[in-house]
Amino acid sequence: MGKVAVIMGSTSDMPVMQEAIDILEGFDIPVEVDIVSAHRTPEKLFDFSKNAHERNIKVIIAGAGGAAHLPGMVASMSPLPVIGVPVKSRNSIDGWDSVLSILQMPGGVPVATVALDGAKNAGILAAQIIGTADKCVMDKILVYKEGLKQKVIEGAKSVQKKK
Ligand SMILES: Nc1c(C(=O)O)ncn1[C@@H]1O[C@H](COP(=O)(O)O)[C@@H](O)[C@H]1O
Questions:
Q1: Measured from the CB, is residue 64 less than 6 Å from ligand 1?
Q2: N or C: which end of the chain has fewer CB within 10 A?
Q3: Max Cα separation, the chain?
Q4: Ligand 1, atom 11: nearest CA belongs to which residue?
Q5: Where does the pLDDT of residue 163 fall: very low under 50, low under 70, confident under 90, or very high at 90 and above?
């Protein structure tokens, strides 16, 4: 099965990005985790982006805060789908700096951007992409979605009883 790479600009992003890792591990998808910064480790960014598709990585999740150039720069150099996670870092402008840096990509270089601190959805989206070529993962996603539905149905029942 193909791997998902979860990269982030700093170790300080880890509490947010861990949610993507947890989701992927829950679906038994192999995950590779690393710290890569467009600003601070540009050579590593170049090497990672140019070679990821040769290492059985199928999707890249990239999270960063502030002037979050990491996801877009990875997308500029890699042929793989890139999911961007805007992280609300310390000293951020309420997270808007990160959201807009990741979301507003020029035509031709897409980054699938999730919500602010939305690493959980990034993990689910990556799993769904892997699931298109792996029936085992697809079955687990169907079970996951059924679980979401049942939770709402049970929640509705408990509210109705209280009426
Ligand atoms: N946005 C970027 C990039 C990048 O885009 O390459 N590298 C680090 N950062 C971000 O800087 C914030 C503060 O980092 P520190 O906590 O290390 O000072 C983090 O949210 C990180 O993602």
A1: yes
A2: C
A3: 62
A4: 65
A5: low
